[in-house]
Amino acid sequence: MGHKKTRKMVYMALLSAIAIVLHMTETALQLPLPPGMKLGLANIISMVVIELYGVKEMFIVNFFRVVVSSLMTGIFLSHPFFISCGGVLLSSLALAVLKKVTSLPIISTSIIAAVFHNIGQVLVVAYLLSSQAIMSYIFVLLASSIPTGIFVGMVAIEILKRVKKEQFQ
Questions:
Q1: Which one has a higher pLDDT value, 133 or 56?
Q2: What stretches pass through the bilayer (predicted)?
Q3: CA separation for the pair 132, 109 (Å, rounded)
Q4: pTM, full prediction
């Protein structure tokens, strides 16, 4: 029993570390995209974790990713940290609800998570700026949700095909 718990903790730590590296790598890449638009590479790990372990574990990995990467980049408790939290929290809640009430394919849930991630970020920015004008920017970000959600979902599917669920339990 103890061996199984230790193994799960090790895999969760490894997946958290991968998510942190992906998040920080994507942040370091200066892609020619509109502000706030990203590929969402760390979300690949969120999709893998929810499939392998479940909702609670996905929340844990996402929490560690946001906190640790913000500490490492010096943005902890700053506006970018809260914007990131808004996106991660809303997309994680959407994934939790979807996991509980539907059996949609991974690509569909990934697209929906991307949509909610963008909505969460824009809501936090609107709050921080005390301005509703930023809400019109949601359409720019939502346009990216479909291709990025498809990409994240496809990569997550490929990873899940290559790992045996039993070895992660």
A1: 56
A2: 37-54, 81-98, 110-129, 135-160
A3: 28
A4: 0.87
